[in-house]
Specification:
- It contains one helix and no strands.
- It has 69 residues and is mostly helical.
């Protein structure tokens, strides 16, 4: 009966060298740069800013329309 020993360093399994087989337009999924759309971030901020400014303008209008005390 053969002993059950760990594999030797010569038995590496299926390791493929694919760095030389890549195309010019290949994108490695582990080295991707995050691209965020700036419009997606600015649209909610613009809506919030517009709402706050409209509220301030409405409050200013109503407060200046009050008769002097």
């Amino acid at each position: 009966m053969e002993p059950n020993v760990p594999t030797t360093p010569e038995e590496t399994g299926l390791v493929l060298d694919t760095t030389h087989d890549l195309h010019g337009d290949h994108v490695d999924p582990q080295i991707q740069v995050v691209r965020q759309n700036v419009r997606v971030a600015l649209l909610p901020l613009a809506i919030i800013a517009f709402t706050v400014i409209a509220f301030i303008a409405a409050a200013w209008t109503f407060l200046t329309a009050l008769p002097p005390a």
